[in-house]
Amino acid sequence: MMRHVIRATFLIAGLSTCPFALGFQATQSEAERQVLAEAKAELERAGQLLNEQMKVMEALRETIARQQERISRIQAGAGPASATPGLPRTAALGASAPEPTHDAVTPSALALTLTAVQTAPAAPAKPASDAPKSDGSKVTVAASKPEPAPAQRQWYQKYSFRGYSQFRYNRLFSTNGLLSCEQCDRSVGLNNGFFIRRARFILSGDVSDRVYIYFQPDFASTAANLNYGQLRDLYFDVAFDQKKEFRVRIGQSKIPFGFENLQSSQNRLSLDRADSLNSAHANERDVGAFFYWAPAPIRRRFADLVSTGLKGSGDYGVFGIGVYNGQVLNRTEANNNLHTVGRVSYPFKLRSGQIIEPGIQAYTGRYTVTSDQRSASVGGPDNFTDQRAALSLMVYPQPFGFQAEYNVGTGPRFNPATKRIQQSGLQGGYAQTMYMRKLHGQTFVPFVRYQYYSGGKKQELDARSYLVRDVEAGVEWQPSPFVELVGLYVHSDRTFEDSRTPNNRQRGNLFRIQMQFNY
Question: Directed axis angle between helix 2-16 and helix 30-76, to 10°?
Fold first, then answer.
């Protein structure tokens, strides 16, 4: 293009110095008229190319702006997950971040880009261009050098490594040492002190344009001894399209049942998940295959709800369906029946900017109470129908928020009167209010929560029977993106019965503290 402009400029300049061009147009020679025609043609071609290049530059400028915005969100903490601005959080623990927003580039812009690139070579590039002057001499104009192609990302630039750790103390102002919760926190109760609740390290990234990996071990798992390594997540997302709106997740991952179950412990306000929905899947995970779908703009919204600190659950699609073993995390399958789960959830954005996410989910399958989960004196069948359905509602804290879930279903439950495990109904839920305040670079989130649950916990000894009524009040303080402190006062009324403790109702109060480090 510059070659055409320069050449035309010299042609016109040459004519302007010619005496015939100053008023003797009628006596112009045939050669001079030919030179003028060539100059005009060169200018027209240069103008066309200039217009095309300006369109190309505008499309590229828009694309670069979108990429810079996406990079800013990632640096601020996107990803499968960060609830603190400026730090990656798990979202997802569990959801791969959406690809660059190619969908935002209109087809017309892409067409203009391709057209300009294809038509630009119409005027072949030359090492140099000779523009004739009116005196017959020539001016040599050097051709511009092509820009180098952008370098591709190295393999190590496609992955991220992050994590978080939680340290707790639950003995302040405790009024009943017999009050405990096996599934919630094993350090609640007698003979406990400082406790490492979680020590997570997360490796995630793009194996290819359509394949994403997520790997998360935990080094604070507990059994007979404390703090041994255990696999929490290992799955691959395989996308069917460039936007990754349609994808299949294969491996060990969270089961899409319950908003709070999907919400990362790194983001959750309360120290423990509610018994009512968490009893569906101990540790929220199992091995299976799941299909997820969500439009690209909604995938970005899911990511923003985590990265901006609004306590999002991560990207588990607007619609999800899948099959999994059903014997809960890190246990082998014990029967020939897979569980099936389905979930629909959508984050609506109101005109005021407030985001509300309702959801509905359900699962069904057969659960086997294995010999190591049953006392020798306890009777009853081994296989049970395991079914639940739940409603969820999340009003994100902007600044006031509200979160509630309730589920009903059926499953195994210990009967202390007959000392048998039997098929029994279950129900329960929770409600939580919260308020988020940002002040001088720090974040404060006070909250109040009530939970209720009546039913069995299939994964505990003898499918232990529970009746839970808890009230909590606390505050989360984030002095920086890397440190969070939670103080929580609990009033608990729990009845939990098995063959060893058939009549066991415990009531009491305690104050709990957790320090969390994000890295």
Answer: 140
Question: DSSP letter string over 11-46?
Answer: HHHHHHTSGGGGT-GGG--HHHHHHHHHHHHHHHHH
Which positions of the chain have pLDDT values less than 50?
2, 4-6, 8-27, 78-129, 131-134, 136-137, 139-142
Inter-CA distances, 372 with 378, 460, 462, Å: 12, 10, 9
Name the residue among 417, 421, 416, 426 with its Cα closest to residue 382. 421
DSSP character string of 37-85: HHHHHHHHHHHHHHHHHHHHHHHHHHHHHHHHHHHHHHHHT-SS--SST
CA distances from 44 to 50, 126, 133 (A): 10, 19, 19
β partners of residue 420: 379, 415
Which of 483, 487, 81 has its CA nearest to residue 263? 81
* DSSP secondary structure letters along 203-253: EEEESSSSEEEEEEEEEEEESSSEEEEEEEEEEEEEESSTT--EEEEEEEE
The pLDDT value given to residue 75:
66
Pinpoint the alpha helices (H) of 241-334: 259-262, 275-278, 296-307
- Strand partners for 423: 412
Q: Residue 47: what pLDDT?
A: 74
Residue closest to 512 by CA, chosen among 187, 170, 270, 274 = 170
HSE, CB side, 13 Å, CA atoms: give it for residue 266: 36
The predicted structure's pLDDT at residue 29: 64
Contact (CB, 8 A) for 228 and 219: yes
Tell me how far apart the alpha carbons of residues 410 and 390 are, in angstroms, rounded to a whole number.
12
Question: Which letter does DSSP use for residue 188 in this model?
Answer: S
How does pLDDT run across 259-309, given as a tens digit for each residue?
999 999 999 999 999 999 999 999 999 999 999 999 999 999 999 999 999
Report which secondary-structure segment, H or E, holds 2.
helix 2-16
Instruction: Show the tokens assigned to 293.
Output: 């779908």
The C-alpha atoms of residue 226 and residue 56 are separated, in whole angstroms, by: 60
Question: Hey, CA dihedral for 468, 472, 478, 479, is it positive or negative?
Answer: negative
Strands 420-435 and 128-132 come out as unpaired
Cis-peptide into 399, omega within 30 deg: yes
Report the predicted TM-score, pTM, of the whole model to 2 decimal places. 0.72
Contact indicator for 200, 302 with CB cutoff of 8 Å: no
Q: Which of 356, 323, 327 is nearest to 342 (CA)?
A: 323
CA-closest candidate to residue 454, choices 471, 470, 473, 467: 467
| pLDDT of res. 64 | 81
Are 20 and 32 within 8 A, CB to CB?
yes
